[in-house]
Automatic annotation (TrEMBL), chains A, B:
The keyword Magnesium applies. It catalyses: D-fructose + ATP = D-fructose 6-phosphate + ADP + H(+). Pfam families: ROK. The keyword Metal-binding applies. GO terms for molecular function: fructokinase activity; metal ion binding. InterPro entries: ATPase_NBD, Carb_Metab_Reg_Kinase/Isom, ROK, ROK_cs. It comes from Aurantiacibacter xanthus. Its cofactor is Mg(2+). Its EC number is 2.7.1.4. CDD domains: ASKHA_NBD_ROK_BsFRK-like. This is fructokinase. Coiled coil: none annotated. Keywords: Magnesium, Metal-binding, Zinc. The lineage of its organism: Bacteria, Pseudomonadati, Pseudomonadota, Alphaproteobacteria, Sphingomonadales. PANTHER family: FRUCTOKINASE (PTHR42742:SF3), TRANSCRIPTIONAL REPRESSOR MPRA (PTHR42742).
Amino acid sequence: MGLVGIELGGTKCIVVRGDAAGIAERVVFATLTPEQTLGAALDQIALWHAEAPVAAIGIASFGPVRVNRQAADYGTILNTPKPGWSGAEVLAMVRERFACPVALDTDVNAAALAEHAHGAGQGCANLVYLTIGTGLGGGVLVEGRPVHGSMHPEIGHVRLRRAAGDVFAGVCPFHGDCIEGLIAGPALIARLPVAPVELGPDAPEWDPVGHDLAELLAQLMLTLSPQRIIIGGGVANRQPHLLARARKIVPKLLAGYLEPADAAYFEALICPPALGDDAGPMGALCLAAQALADAQGRP
Amino acid sequence: MGLVGIELGGTKCIVVRGDAAGIAERVVFATLTPEQTLGAALDQIALWHAEAPVAAIGIASFGPVRVNRQAADYGTILNTPKPGWSGAEVLAMVRERFACPVALDTDVNAAALAEHAHGAGQGCANLVYLTIGTGLGGGVLVEGRPVHGSMHPEIGHVRLRRAAGDVFAGVCPFHGDCIEGLIAGPALIARLPVAPVELGPDAPEWDPVGHDLAELLAQLMLTLSPQRIIIGGGVANRQPHLLARARKIVPKLLAGYLEPADAAYFEALICPPALGDDAGPMGALCLAAQALADAQGRP
């Protein structure tokens, strides 16, 4: 079908071609300036386009980014600490080179779409996709569609109840101990006595980390009532015991309030991704497929 | 058009007839047992039906209640402390008496629908409706439709960051100091030195209450990115200074993270309802109108 996906990340940009079912080929570029990075990506897409026409392009971008399709600045990066990227007109730069339908959403909303279509979120039209790595981000689907609203969710920066006695100040430059400042990679380096990979899964130093993750999950359950919460990213992938810890703590935090939910319920609700690091680029292909369908008037 | 709405509340049940534009007539019953309360409501609807055929019925119910239309127990009250109501098959009891289309959602989701259609949420397809009264509840619209998911949001029971130095234990029987346990009516009676109505709006004892509300609003903004947050209910109506306090504190909690938002932005974002206590029954009429449209295959 000739779809192209661009996952625009903070350190690298992955460009793939394929169809709604998956990735056929990928090329990776370092994320430098918008002109350098998107220039290289668009040159690659032009090469593919010369071989076989590109029908649509989807972009899964780091945020904050304007995702409202009706906005004049749809597809523009908003105020970001990343040098050179504030105000970068990502969608417009792609449209300037290619006349096909183009759509853009956040990287985490795109990953949520991919996990819903092909991965751990199949059958769950209301789901949350969390990534815990260098930062913490969350994508939200309601009835199978990404939640936008005023901007888009910024779940990484919610302030949650701290564990009793935990005085770690957090490392978020904006908020200190918001959830990203407590459990993303840089926070773990700051709060753990040794490097995270050197700390055994049973070490008690993981207790407050598991607690903080559980507070986030309980809060998401009470606010969004998701059918699934998929947790990926480098930290979650390397520390699978964190999901197990959170699954045990969440029911205690809810204190029996939500409908009877046993261990099997939480085991199914809170799970790792099925697509691994491919969720982002596959999500970009999902966005391309949807852009094509929209252009053709299909649902 | 002959629509009927039932707002089933914890202490009273309001039955209205009207059309999608508003309420023409209302009758109020005390909430006793399901048989007594719904029996009286259905007898009233039968009287109206004899005068002019009822085309559809919408029910805005207290929760927790099954709102998933595909579920076998759609419209059944789930586990509740309210005597006699756990397992009450509200929707089925209405359908037993009337053959017309019937739909049910939570009281707060219905109120959100009404404020979106006729009130303070016009033009805001992604919004949150909060009611702070005897309890604290929240309805959520995404793209104009109520959020359901696994069950439905239970925003009243989120656990938030406490204000520094505030040691009030909260009064929620499940969670102690969840947000309902901190700022709903019974919590105010427990935590304030005098009755809430006797405490002047500038009293410093309101400070932690305003803080707790602000924490909730910041959390909702980061998780749902709503275009509007409408706050009604007895406590909010009688203490309008709480909204003003929260509007000042929320930007400090966000610490400049969300896109540039000045005082005017927060003034528009956080607002009282336009429909007052009619949001619930008007929401029930919105549900009836949607049930009729669904039955006729209209969008």
